[in-house]
Design brief:
The complex is a heterotrimer. By secondary structure, chain A is of the alpha/beta class. Helices cover 32% and strands 27% of the residues of chain A. Classes of the chains: A alpha/beta, B mainly alpha, C mainly alpha. Chains B and C meet through helix 6, helix 11, helix 13 and helix 14 of B and helix 4, helix 10 and helix 12 of C.
Chain lengths: 517, 364, 308
């Protein structure tokens, strides 16, 4: 009986709670030896949490983990490593000025006469890379090689430590399409050699083309584990995004006016100097909410940063109220009438150590009535702060506490109060409800609708499909830095959008995408 | 909307925060004094007696009080310099270099020009400030434009200042005669003394006024708002349309000018010329201690400067009257800095203690 | 002329020695990600300890004492800045102030003098048999204080440790990308402690070379900024042992030139300009005017393990 059990990993009833949320709720997961198993789910569904429990970064509150049919308490990554588990993180753990070999052998260096035996080390790296078809140059410095290469180094690091079970966390997120193809080849040669692979993803197309089986997780719960050849991408999309709509927003028919923002053929690079916006075009009119739907990392961050003057564009035009903005500067954009709810309230939205009244004037601190000349008008500032706290229902003991003492939802309301109070013509809301409680979400949604009804143009960028669907009047889907299509809300269904977001519709793979190798 | 429920909890939290701000410096000062006492016991001196001497040397007589204030003046300025740097998130440890260039620049204006006092004195003061400001501003520029750590550049600029001022005061700008110093400044450039028999000069009022001004700038002006915003969260500041790079240069200029005022008042109020320096007086480094004790607040800086003014005044007296080497003060100073810098461990221990006592820590 | 050249080069080597030693110390510390501006103070304490050791016991016991005390003080810097998460600059500053205080205090206490200690036995010189007879080279390398040879050997040893051993690779990984090092099971905190304590070893030795190598007594505040020049040499030498050595030699040369110019009455360049040169060169090196010098990526950053 035991011999027939061909499981590399078995996780039973894993529950992991964080303050206020259950990230994993009695999740079961099985990985067979020699298979490629996709772990599919939306952002925040609990995929990474589950894998962190397996790798020992987190300790599950409940549940059991078996590795090769042996019960294991994975208290920290060293335990996981010693049981043959290797993890390739989304953000590579590599030392840039070190060579490929140095990165791979770090912490487990072969030595001769107390010195690192570079000859053996390089040979080891060459041997492993040949065995699995991972072509790397052992003596190249990591900072000089491509992202795809760096990922191979990460995989080699795990293999060098004797990993039989590999966890790849969103491995394709940072790769070009060609690099993805090469990765798939590598994954196949790894399984040919008897390794088992778990790969975390939210891209449906990849699941179908790469994985043997797929486990779908939604809101921390296991939905199902199925063989990929028994389901269609459509089924997967439904399993992944098709949840009951919990947020119903009352709204009237939109009454759109003239175009306020017109973006045409916009190009911009990301942090890694790769093109993240590849000719994005769309326009937003007064009195409407344009929702931008898309999977994380398809250019949304770059788009909001270009539109708020924090990132320079490579090409393309931005027209605001009919005039072209050639060189967007943060301060200028404010003054022209663009308000902006940033996607990361702690990093960009608020100064946590500042008091509420100080946060409420950021960006207009040098303008009347908050300042006269070089002086701050603190009395007026506090007065206005009290008004905004009242108007926007911010729960706080007073306007003189630090922003960090508020709850997430109230912090977000603080930003909304500041940005709405500017009376902008265009409001860019990026992830306006991320990580906040239901009450605050409802409040923020209603405020966005009110702004729309007050004839403002609103650009809503969100990873939450629900949010996009319940608020938007039109929906644009962004994929790899391009707008795939713009649909009227009446035509937009979750399935349709889900497929477009996963790149299924517009993608024209020359080789069909399915069979590789 | 004011919420009663959280109001109480937050008030308690705020109280604790303030407590930490006050308690940590006080514990640190006490720890410093205890360590000092241990050293005194080692050499067979009586700490209590020594500390009484220390106290009396500053507060026992008007003369002593005046001398203590003489020590305090430069420390207020260098303390403010470090504190202002902290506010924008930069560490100006170049106070000693900024002190020296300003010292020389003020003295130079003081003896080179013959002007009525109401022009000459401000002229000399401003020249001193600008010299120190440039010395600090360069470090700010190198940080803002090239990302070079300001600690490294300000250290380097300390020594460049030391040798540059040494060269100028002992060479091209040297007065006739044997004394390695510039000529004496004219009376019109002097900061007057207000008690004829004492060395204390109007620099003390200037220092207090500047402390108030810095407070005003930081909390009452838009520039101060931008400085604090940049120091707390440069990303959010930039998002708010604040020119982070420009503010860094400007803030380091101001920080340098503040440290420069220490040198300026030294030249115009005390020494009336610039001597060739043979090393650093150390006001810049003590300024770090002053700013830390004062928790970066101008009012706290004044108190911190008084503390170190009293200590340095008392050091001499303790040595001559109870035979405690004056260097014990430096040891006390170092211990105070170490303790304040280790604030994290205080908070950590306090949290542990509260957890043990209260069972569960507050979830929020 | 030749005699002057020999003297100049010989002095260069001697003046560079404390800088080389302290720069090596700074390098180990910063390579692991901890800025150590306490080099100055540790040197001073090392100088005092070496003198006192020689006074009460023997010169080499003095050297041993200097090294041990140096490591203890460095351990304090490590404790406060790594475990207590104090600002590394603040902690270093406090140690520098402490060093000035404690050495002055003990000087007064033991020797009853404010300015300097009595003359003690120094470590003497070592003669190298064959080299000694070669012209010029013999004059420079043939007979020197032991610290010169020790420093040169330690440069080679440090190079070997840092670039050839697993330990060195791990130190460097911790200073560049602590999270990556942590993910392969390297103890980041432990490595940093070791590296900082090593820097105390080198700075203590550098201090000994001042008091009972270059001189035979302790003078109040005798490190007089050499810890900071060593920091400059380390930066100028791009955080490598050989680079730091070359930079220290260059700075030592400027110092020697300035001393020689004074003794033979040359005034073609004011001596202060020569003294200033190291600092100006270092700034230029950092700005990239003469090849950009970049510190380890995590230099000065405390490592706080992410609590998910």
């Amino acid at each position: 009986m035991a011999a027939g059990n061909n499981l590399a990993v078995e996780m039973k009833g894993i529950t992991k709670r964080f303050p206020g949320v259950i990230a994993n709720d009695k999740v079961d997961f099985e990985l067979e030896k020699g298979e490629i198993h996709a772990l599919l789910g939306e952002n925040g569904a609990g995929k990474t949490t589950l894998m962190n429990c397996l790798y020992g970064f987190l300790n599950a509150d409940e549940g059991e983990i078996f590795i090769n049919n042996k019960k294991v308490e994975v208290t920290d990554p060293n335990v996981a490593i010693s049981h043959g588990i290797g993890m390739v993180h989304q953000h590579f753990m590599l030392v840039p000025p070190f060579t490929v070999t140095e990165n791979i052998v770090l912490g487990k260096e072969p030595t001769k006469n107390n010195m690192i035996d570079y000859k053996t080390a390089n040979q080891n790296v060459r041997d492993i890379s040949k065995q699995y078809g991972l072509n790397v140059e052992p003596t190249a410095k990591v900072q000089d090689i491509s992202v795809g290469m760096q990922q191979r180094v990460e995989i080699l690091k795990a293999l060098y430590r004797g990993a039989d079970i590999l966890i790849l966390d969103e491995p394709t997120a940072v790769l070009t399409p060609q690099e993805v193809k090469e990765l798939v080849k590598i994954m196949e040669s790894l399984t040919d050699e008897g390794k088992s692979i778990i790969f975390i993803t939210h891209k449906l197309k990849e699941v179908k083309s790469i994985a043997d089986r797929v486990t779908v997780i939604r809101s921390g719960k296991l939905i199902d584990t199925v063989k990929t050849d028994t389901v269609t991408t459509n089924d997967l999309a439904n399993m992944m995004v098709g949840r009951e709509v919990i947020l119903e927003v009352e709204k009237k028919e939109a009454n759109p006016g003239e175009v306020v923002l017109e973006v045409e053929d916009l190009y911009a690079k990301n942090e890694r100097d790769l093109m993240a916006l590849n000719g994005t075009s769309f326009s937003v009119r007064r009195g409407e909410i344009l929702g931008i739907a898309g999977v994380d990392g398809n250019g949304q961050t770059e788009l909001t940063e270009v539109l708020s003057g924090l990132r320079k564009k490579e090409k393309g035009t931005i027209k605001f109220k009919g005039r072209e903005i050639t060189k967007p500067q943060t301060k200028r954009l404010f003054e022209e009438g663009i308000s902006h709810i940033p996607e990361d309230r702690q990093k960009r939205g608020l100064i946590m150590e500042f008091k509420l009244y100080e946060n409420l004037i950021l960006g207009r601190h040098d303008r009347k009535p908050y300042a006269s000349g070089i002086n701050l008008n603190n009395k007026k500032i506090k007065e206005e702060a009290r008004r905004l706290i009242e108007d926007f229902d911010i729960r706080t003991p007073s306007e003189t506490v630090q922003a960090k003492s508020l709850s997430g939802g109230n912090q977000q309301k603080l930003i909304i109060a500041r940005e709405f109070d500017r009376k902008p013509d265009l409001l860019i809301a990026a992830q306006p409800t991320r990580g906040i409680d239901v009450g605050a979400i409802e409040y923020i949604h209603n405020s966005l609708i009110t702004q729309r009804d007050n004839n403002k143009a609103i650009l809503l960028i969100s990873l939450e499909l629900d949010e996009i669907l319940s608020l938007s009047d039109r929906v644009a889907v962004i994929y790899e830095g391009k707008i795939v299509d713009i649909l009227d809300i009446g035509d937009a269904t979750e399935e349709k959008l889900g497929l477009m977001m996963a790149g299924a519709e517009s993608e024209e793979e020359p080789e069909g995408g399915g069979q590789v190798g | 909307m004011v919420d009663k429920d959280i109001s109480e909890k937050k008030a308690k939290y705020l109280q604790e925060q303030h407590l930490v701000d006050f308690i940590v410096p006080i514990i640190s000062i006490i720890a410093g004094l205890i360590v000092g006492a241990i050293f005194m016991l080692i050499i067979g001196a009586e700490p209590i007696k020594a500390y009484i001497v220390l106290w009396n040397s500053s507060f026992g007589s008007l003369r002593g009080f005046g001398e203590m204030l003489v020590n305090t003046v430069p420390l207020i300025f260098t303390g403010l310099a470090v504190a202002f740097g902290f506010k924008i998130g930069l560490f100006n440890i170049g106070g000693d270099g900024q002190f020296l260039v300003s010292y020389l620049a003020a003295a130079y204006i003081g003896y080179m020009f013959q002007l009525p006092m109401y022009i000459h004195l401000p002229f000399a003061l401003i020249a001193g400030m600008i010299a120190g400001g440039i010395w600090g501003g360069i470090a700010g520029y190198l940080k803002a434009k090239l990302g070079i750590h300001e600690v490294i550049t300000t250290i380097m600029f300390n020594y460049i200042a030391l040798y540059l001022v040494g060269y100028l005061a002992g060479g091209p700008l040297k007065a006739e005669g044997l004394l390695p110093a510039t000529p004496k400044i004219f009376d019109t450039a002097k900061l007057p003394r207000f008690v004829p028999t004492m060395r204390i000069h109007y620099g003390i009022f200037l220092a207090l006024a500047v402390a108030v001004l810095i407070y005003y700038i930081l909390w009452k002006t838009t520039f101060g708002y931008e400085v604090r915003a940049t120091g707390q969260n440069p990303d959010a500041a930039q998002f708010g349309g604040i020119n982070v790079a420009r503010n860094m240069v400007l803030a380091m200029f101001i920080s340098g000018a503040l440290a420069g005022l220490a040198g300026t008042t030294q030249a115009l109020g005390l020494e009336y010329r610039a001597y060739q320096p043979f090393g650093f007086v150390g006001y810049g480094f003590t300024g770090i201690a002053v700013a830390l004790v004062g928790k970066g607040h101008p009012g706290g800086v004044v108190l911190g400067a008084l503390l170190f003014g009293v200590l340095s005044r008392g050091a001499m007296m303790m040595q001559s009257m109870v035979g405690v080497p004056k260097e014990v003060i430096e040891i006390i100073q170092a211990i105070i800095i170490m303790f304040i810098a280790s604030e994290y461990i205080f908070k950590y221990l306090a949290r542990k203690w509260r957890e043990r006592k209260g069972g569960v820590a507050d979830a929020s | 002329m030749l005699a002057n050249l020999t003297a100049l080069l010989s002095t260069t080597l001697r003046m560079a020695t404390p800088l080389i030693l302290a720069a090596l110390g700074g390098m180990f510390s910063e390579r692991s990600g901890v800025i150590n501006i306490a080099l100055e103070g540790i040197m001073l304490i090392g100088a005092f300890t070496a003198m006192a050791g020689s006074y009460f016991f023997s010169p080499w016991i003095g050297v041993l004492g200097a090294v041990i005390v140096g490591m203890i003080i460095a351990a304090a810097h490590a404790l406060v800045s790594i475990s207590f998460r104090a600002d590394q600059i603040v902690s270093g500053t406090a140690i520098n102030i402490f060093a000035a205080g404690i050495t002055g205090f003990l000087l007064r206490l033991i020797f009853g003098d404010a300015g300097q200690s009595p003359s003690v036995q120094d470590v003497g010189t070592w003669k190298i048999p064959f080299i000694k007879n070669i012209p010029v080279i013999g004059g420079v390398f043939g007979e020197q204080i032991p610290f010169v040879y020790i420093a040169l050997i330690l440069v080679a040893v440090s190079y070997w440790i840092l670039f050839k051993t697993p330990f060195g690779l791990r130190i460097r990984s911790v200073g560049e990308h602590p999270a990556a090092a942590d993910s392969v099971g390297i103890n980041v905190i432990g490595m940093r402690y070791i590296a900082v304590i090593m820097s105390g070893f080198f700075a203590g030795l550098a201090g000994a070379s001042l008091s009972i190598g270059l001189l035979d007594l302790f003078v109040k505040n005798m490190s007089s900024g050499r810890g900071f020049i060593a920091l400059a040499a380390m930066i100028f030498g791009r955080w490598t042992p050989h680079g730091a050595m070359l930079a220290a030699l260059l700075f030592g040369f400027a110092d020697a030139l300035q001393m020689l110019a004074q003794t033979i009455g040359l005034t073609f360049v004011p001596r202060q300009f020569l003294l200033m040169a190291p600092y100006i060169l270092t700034i230029l090196a950092l700005t990239g005017v003469i090849g950009r010098s970049t510190p380890p990526a995590a230099d000065g950053e405390p490592y706080i393990k992410e609590e998910v």
